[in-house]
Amino acid sequence: MSIHGLLAKAGATVATGLVGAAAYDAARAVVRRAPLREGAVIATTWGIRGTRKAEEVAESVRLNTSDIVAEAKGRLGEESTPPGTAVTHDHDH
C-alpha cells in the first residue's frame, strides 16, 4: 500500500510541474510577442517632451511676470532689481 501512496504523490508532483512549466512557457511567449520595451521607451519620450515644454512655459511665465512687476515699479517711480539678482537678507534664520 505504501507504494501506491508514493506513486500517487509523485504523480501529483509531476502533474503540478507540467502545468507550471506550460504556464511558464506560455508567459514567456506572451512577453516575447508584447513590445513592452518599445512602449516604455515611447512613454518615456513623451514624458521628457512634456517636462521640457512645461519648463519652457514656466520660464516664459516667470519672465512675463518679472516684466510686469518691473513696469509697475517703474510707474511708481521705484527702481526694479535686474533679473537674476538675488535678494540678500542681513539676518540669519
Shape: rod-shaped
What are the secondary-structure elements, in order, as H or E?
Answer: HH
Low-confidence stretches: none
Rg result: 34 Å
Name the average pLDDT: 81
Strand content: under 5%
Question: Whole-Å distance between the termini?
Answer: 85 Å
Secondary structure tally, helices: 2
Instruction: Please identify the oligomeric state.
Output: single chain
What is the number of strand segments? Answer: 0
Structural class: mainly alpha
Helical fraction equals over 70%
Please outline the major beta sheet: none
What does this structure look like?
The chain has two helices and no strands. It has 93 residues and is mainly α. The protein is rod-shaped and about 105 Å long. The relative contact order is 0.04.
Looking at this protein, list some descriptive labels.
mainly alpha; 78% helix; 2 helices; rod-shaped; 93 residues
Offer a concise description of the structure.
InterPro entries: DUF1490. This protein is rod-shaped.
Task: Write the topology of this structure.
Blueprint: H1 2-33, H2 36-76
